[in-house]
Fold this sequence. Notes:
Elements (H helix, E strand, L loop, with lengths): L5 E5 L3 H14 L2 E5 L2 H8 L6 E5 L7 H11 L5 E5 L4 H10 L3 E4 L4 H20 L9 H11 L6 E2 H8 L3 H13 L3 E7 L5 E7 L4
Amino acid sequence: xxxxxxxxxxxxxxxxxxxxxxxxxxxxxxxxxxxxxxxxxxxxxxxxxxxxxxxxxxxxxxxxxxxxxxxxxxxxxxxxxxxxxxxxxxxxxxxxxxxxxxxxxxxxxxxxxxxxxxxxxxxxxxxxxxxxxxxxxxxxxxxxxxxxxxxxxxxxxxxxxxxxxxxxxxxxxxxxxxxxxxxxxxxxxxxxxxxxxxxxxxxxxx
Length: 206
């Protein structure tokens, strides 16, 4: 019998914690609940969660600082930030702090479950093998995966370089790997004077 995945949820709103608890139980995951990062630290002393959900706006230690603190002790555990904000500036701060992904509030159960499943699968797969391609880093790959999952439309390499903060040459190498693994899809677009552009989009599979 498979051991239930442990999901740590950190949020100062008890109603949201209750919702997250019910989502976890419905999926067969074990919920670990904390109303602050201080409470989460006490949980982490006795448990190693498989994934962490953390609210952005919390009194005391906010979500950005919480992610940084988590990364000191759990460098590989997937972290999803919950937020009402969707600006590129805020998203960039999440990823710079070490978050793998973010989900918007109010919480949409279907969307959040899909994100959790994807990151659990990615994390599980990463434990058993490394990408065979030379120069492919799991840390960089997971960062790109987290960003691409939040992009609904096809984007070209210049736009993705700005969004990810990763140089085009590096992105292209990772995209070729991700295309072979069927993680993203590509398309051609013809701009001014018929010049072709290669566009990329997450294909919804892991």
